[in-house]
């Protein structure tokens, strides 16, 4: 067996509408095909990717320790300034780090249920106006 890449993450949502609004309206993912299932949820896609990268499940109870064992999920992104502007418009707190050695800006924020999200932008994007 050989691992070829990451397929998707699944998040549990206490409010499907709020969770979709964050990942669709704030982060810009796209809702796409989800086969018929017993649970309510959504499958989200990035740009023109063939397979979903994020599954949302809405009818499962939240675990007592909602953060679980996964610390965060990370997405490759572009448009650092517009992302910061959008986060501010939605009142979403974030932390921004520039790691020149890795060629990346790292932006951290949380979804409506507290899942930590990392957005990685190319280091050559201009320093944002905060």
From TrEMBL:
One term of GO molecular function: dioxygenase activity
Which top-rank group of organisms is this from?
Answer: Bacteria
Coiled coil regions, renumbered to chain: none
Keywords on record: Dioxygenase, Oxidoreductase
PROSITE patterns xref list: VOC (PS51819)
Q: Does the keyword Nucleotide-binding apply?
A: no
Q: Where is the VOC domain?
A: 5-122
Reply yes or no: does the keyword Oxidoreductase apply. yes
- Tell me which Pfam families the record gives: Glyoxalase
What's the protein here called? Glyoxalase/bleomycin resistance protein/dioxygenase
